[in-house]
Amino acid sequence: MSALDDGEVGGAAVAPVWEVFGDLMSGLLGAFVLVLVGVLVVQMDLVASLESEIAKRRIEEQRRVALEKALAVPLAAGRITLHEGRIGISGSVLFPVNSDELRSEGRQLLKSLVPALQAYLGERREMLMVSGFTDDRPIREGNARYADNLELSAQRALTVTRALIDEGMPREQVFAAAFGPEQPVASNASEQGRSLNRRVEMAPVPRASPAKP
């Protein structure tokens, strides 16, 4: 009777150990499965994000190529430049020195750009920023129309903006900005460099998101 009792006691003592071990293994397996699922979800999100970024870049490249084709004639003639979506026009093409009076050939150039700009901006929620830049030389003495280069660049940007609107660009799709001698693209130590710095640039920028009530 005592031997049987001992066996029963021994069996009763061993059984809970295996039950605990089984519960532990089940818990570990469940945790492993959860971790594995989490890793797979993260990988799927990364793949989806990568595919989305590739698609965006492909669309941007297509837009850039389309813009280059639309501006092929003035680009080939050297009347404009195109770099990373920014259209640059030399100030001498648009204006006389120290003036914001638009040349007739400058107006014709702007008119030729409007269809391409409208198509380029129409594909996304963007606006066109028209920026005026000057060299670092002070405004010539006797010219009382402008206080400084910043004001001259502002008036030139406004003139180009108004000309684009007159030629069909929607008013709500274009605005002017002025930088004066800031952000030069060449050294102001030479006339060639100063000529490059006297310019107007047009670039697409995102529209502001509407304010939430």
Characterization of this structure:
This protein has 213 residues and is of the alpha+beta class. Helices cover 57% and strands 15% of the residues. The longest helix has 69 residues, at 2-70. The protein is elongated and about 100 Å long. Residues 179-213 are annotated as: Disordered. InterPro entries: Bact_OuterMem_StrucFunc, OmpA-like, OmpA-like_sf. Residues 185-195 have a biased composition (Polar residues).
Key terms:
OmpA-like, Bact_OuterMem_StrucFunc, alpha+beta, membrane, 60s Ribosomal Protein L30, Chain: A, 2 domains, 213 residues, OmpA-like_sf, transmembrane, 15% strand
Write the layout of secondary structure elements.
Blueprint lengths: L1 H69 L1 H5 L4 E3 L2 E5 H4 L9 H19 L3 E8 L15 H18 L7 E7 L10 H7 L1 E8 L7
Parallel strand pairs: 3-4
Antiparallel strand pairs: 1-2, 2-5, 3-5
